[in-house]
Amino acid sequence: MFKKPFRVKSQTSMKGSDRKKVRVEIQKSFSNLSVEDVNTIIPNKEDVSSVKIHTNTGENAFIYCVNKQPLLFELDKQKVLYPTVYLLWRYPDLMERFTTWPPVFKKLVDGADLMLPGLVLRLPLTPGSFKHVEKGQVCSVNVVGNRCPIVVGTTLLSGSDFFDSGMRGKGIHPVHLYGDELWAFGDRSKPPEVEDDPLREELYGNHEQGHEPTEPSDGTGEVERVEAADNNIYEAKADNVIEPSHKTGKLDRELATDNSVHEVNAEIVGEDSVEGEVNETEAEMTESVQGIHDENMAENWVEEHNGDKKSGLGDSNASESGCGDEDIVEGTEQLTLGSEVETPQSMSTVETDELLEFCFLCSIKASLKKTDLPLATGTFYKNHMLKYCPKGKYLDIKKSSYKKLSKFLQKQQKSGIILVKEVTKGVDAVVEIDKSHELLRGLEVPEVVVQETGASSKDSFKPPQISEMFAVTANILPLVKGFGYNKGSTLKSADLRTALVEYVKQNNLQSETNKGEVVLDPLLAEICLTRAEGDKSTLRWEEVTSRVLNKMSPVFQIEFPDRPPLVRKGKVEPITIDVVQRAANKKATIIENLDIYGIDAKEFGHRVQVKVACSATVNPSQQKNKGPQVVVQGNQVHHVAELLSDVYKIPKKYIKGTEKAPKRR
């Protein structure tokens, strides 16, 4: 669904009534959430927006974002509410959750469905194992070792069909995955590490022989198992080997040892069948990673991607899926249980309380500034406290003795280190802090955390790429439809000229007497001519191009680094710099439209403040549906324009108002 970039059609801020409707839908879709949890997901006082998008598959969808973080989405045709991975990382058990092996996720990234043999069964399979699962039910998938889901999808079979099919065939259709374009629409963070429930020992006991996965040189991406030992050889019975079918893509094999017989049901994902030869002394068997039930194989897979070059599994898949998918899968390795991967430690209530207080004191001493106040308590916890949690541990307020953040802050308020007040109904905020408190005097903030929080993104700003384009309208559609364009498709002026040249060549419309003119057929005449020009039969090339462009709708595409391109209607608005007269003959410089170019208004105001040594504030715009504006004391047009062009690399044609700078003497 979101494997390829999508186009943003509109983005609007949600009113209070709209937020209530979304909360009702969340409560209906996810009944295990409490009213408090729903109000936390869709808060009253924070920025909640609805983004309408058009996917590459031709479907429309709505994304619900909180503080520009996508948490929910709804497909226009299905009217089903899905959570994103960002929301599932906060509530891992929000809905039915399945578990699979890390190599299987690599196939899901490539676009395959999750096959039933790829599911990890924590209990022996019985008719009632999946009795509660319905066909088409929204579900999530996590990998072994981490409770946080990385796949959102729908079931293709009911729970009873899972059992009746013998756990064969397609089971789950992925809709949204960690690493796709919807994930990139957010802050692109990695999943937190939360320890999952332990697996059955039987899942490991059947594979104590120590299998080593290798990959055939043809780059098919399938795992080849070669077992040869004196007494423990997996011998394939030639009579029982069923040749794979090119139509079904399924392969059944029986592997026998001296003492037991193990059945391996391999489901081949999106590949043609593989031919194999069976010898008397050894068996070379190929099986898909979709059907792996082997912890040793999962560990070997992690080792391969960490530098073991014995197997070509990682390289061949990288060539198939591209570097972007490989990076995502490498990030998934950190979620698995292995000798080189740290997993979150389970802590007692007392240890959680101590960690909570440690993170709180570190945030007061090194992170939170008095200029940030007043600050909502939830934002304080998320942006200032959580980053001081040591690696390998997971800070969960619900596992502490306080259970709620408000109770913990009430205790800290009694000690005098902070002051919390209710700024609006139902919203608490930190309004005062005491950095000279005795609890902070002997506190040592971890150096690595100080470096991370002190690292600034100011010098790493990358300006967006802006392309002025035109959208195909109903009048122009007959002219360009033969070249693969539809109504609403966006073209650059160069693409339109190319289409016009091809249209003139195909219809032999170039004037024989003057090569610089075009003979107007009925279609071009209807588009280019006015009623007063009905007698004209030819036009120059430049006139034809300009008149066709005038009949199209102007749009612009803005593309930020590591983000899907956004297409917006109208012409791109420049950054405006205006000078206004204030009381007592004082002047102020107002800068607007910074948000269009991805510039943080607060950071920009601080830069101007440091550069010219004057006050700078960030205020909401007086115009509707516009981002914040920066107000700087005095006429600072020259310094602001210099900062925009030199530091932020904004082209001068997108900066308006530079002529208002004071003349230098």
What does this structure look like?
- This protein has 665 residues and is of the alpha+beta class.
- It is 28% helix and 23% strand.
- It has 20 helices and 30 strands.
- It has a five-stranded antiparallel sheet.
- A hairpin with a 2-residue loop joins strand 3 and strand 4.
- Helix 4 packs antiparallel against helix 10 and helix 9 crosses helix 10.
- The protein is flat.
- The protein starts with 6 loop residues before the first strand and ends in a 9-residue tail after the last strand.
Main attributes of the structure:
alpha+beta, 20 helices, 5-stranded mixed β-sheet, 665 residues, flat, 5-stranded antiparallel β-sheet
Number of helices: 20
The strand order across the widest sheet is 1-2-3-4-5
Largest sheet: 5 strands, antiparallel
Structural class: alpha+beta
Straight-line distance between termini: 60 Å
What would the average pLDDT be, to the nearest integer? 76
Instruction: Please indicate the percent range of residues in DSSP E strands (runs of 2 or more).
Output: 15-25%
Q: Based on Cα principal axes, name the global outline.
A: flat
